[in-house]
Structure formats: structure tokens, C-alpha cells
Amino acid sequence: MSANKKKSNDSINLKYLIGDMGFEILLAIKKGASKKETIKLLSGVPMECINGRLPVLIDLNLISKNNEEFYITERGIEFKKRVEFKNKI
Questions:
Q1: Sign of CA dihedral 17, 65, 34, 55
Q2: What class does CATH assign to 13-88?
Q3: pTM value?
Q4: SS3 of 70, please?
Q5: Contact criterion met (CB below 8 Å) for 29 and 72
Q6: What is the tally of helices (H) and strands (E) in the chain?
Q7: Cα–Cα distance measured from residue 38 to residue 41, given in angstroms and rounded to the nearest whole number
Q8: Roughly how many angstroms between the first and final C-alpha of the chain, as a whole number?
Q9: Cβ(63)–Cβ(72) below 8 Å
Q10: For the chain, domain boundaries
Q11: Interhelix angle for 47-59 vs 3-30, to 10°?
Q12: CA neighbours closer than 13 Å in the CB half-sphere of residue 15
């Protein structure tokens, strides 16, 4: 299996792992939401789900946390690009 095909499959598996709400949270953070309340407003995801998904996104190295602010990582940016590209096909 080629490296690109493996990355694509990994992205699909990761997308299923974090779910649609996790992906919406990631998109909100990419758009500049760094605090939980702003993430809620931009993503439309309930706070209970945000509180449950943020640690998962951090553990998967898709986002990072500094004090009480969240930022997308390089891995998160690449993951977002691969998922969006796969959805266009």
C-alpha cells in the first residue's frame, strides 16, 4: 500500500473516531475559536460534547492546549485537508 493511500485510510479512520462533532470542533478551532464558549458558538456543538471531545483531539495531536485556549496543530491542519479532499472526490 502506498504512503498516500495509507494516510488517506488513516484520515478516514480518524474521522470516524472523532465523529462529526469532533470534526466540527476542529473546524471551529481552525477558524480561530480558541475558547470553549467560542468553539460552541462557531461549531454549534453542545458544551457537554465539546468537553468530552477536546481531550480526545488533544490526545490525537490534532489540537493543542495552552492555558485555557485551544489551537490546531500541524497534524490537525493536514488531517483537515485530507478529509476535505476525500469528501470532494
A1: positive
A2: mainly alpha
A3: 0.87
A4: strand
A5: yes
A6: 4, 2
A7: 5
A8: 20
A9: yes
A10: 13-88
A11: 140
A12: 19
> Which residue is associated with the grid cell 462557531?
42
Tell me the sheet residues that pair with 66. Answer: 69
All three cell numbers of 81: 485537508
Residue 1 clears pLDDT 60, i.e. is over it: no
The per-residue pLDDT for range 11-69, each reduced to its tens digit, is: 788 999 999 999 999 999 999 999 999 999 999 999 999 999 999 999 999 999 999 99
Give residue 57's Cα distance to chain centre.
6
Single-letter amino acid code for the residue at 8: S
What is the identity of the amino acid at 40? Answer: K
Q: How many CA atoms lie within 13 A of 5 on its CB side?
A: 2
